[in-house]
TrEMBL record:
Domain Phosphoribosyltransferase residues, every copy: 16-146
Name under which the protein is recorded: Hypoxanthine phosphoribosyltransferase
One BP term from GO: hypoxanthine metabolic process
Catalytic activity, as annotated: IMP + diphosphate = hypoxanthine + 5-phospho-alpha-D-ribose 1-diphosphate
Amino acid sequence: MALDDDIERVLWTDEQISKRVTELAGQITRDFSGESLSESSPVVVGVATGAFLFLADLVRKIKLPVTVDFIRAESYGSGTVSNGAPRISFDLKVGIQGKHVILVEDIVDTGNTLSCLIAHLESRGASSVSVCTLFDKPARRKCPDYFIVGYGLDFAELYRNLPYVGILKPEIYN
Ligand code: 5GP
Ligand code: MG
Ligand code: MG
């Protein structure tokens, strides 16, 4: 049984993802190369686990000194529908007091996870929190309202290792 068998169709290929990641890294490099950053490198915070591939590809293309860390917020459990208020279940190792934080997310759906994380990072004294998300569901309708997997995104912790992003066949979760 091949991993691909459960995918209805591919939405973004690994080449398309890579091109977008390059653009985002370029934008971050431009946005954060100001003189105000001389004594403080931005902290790139990946939201585990979904952002792990995106974070790894992104930071290799950012042409600035950055610190890398992870945070984990849980709301989805193993289903495809959010199960209420997210909570932080794994916190940062590095201090972010007075630092610019770039929060790297795989996908924003309702925005609940993001609001929870931004409030948390601000309460830790971040001087700014910017968000870099690869996919955005309802907010700007860039991503159709399917349940998607691959390139870090899971269903029940599976499919994260697909190199592309595709729509999961509904019979897998129904
Ligand atoms: P939010 O709190 O914005 O509703 O949900 C964000 C989180 O839900 C994302 O970080 C991601 O883990 C998960 N999520 C939302 N939509 C999808 C989807 O289509 N596929 C996968 N695999 N996860 C999703
Ligand atoms: Mg996520
Ligand atoms: Mg998940």
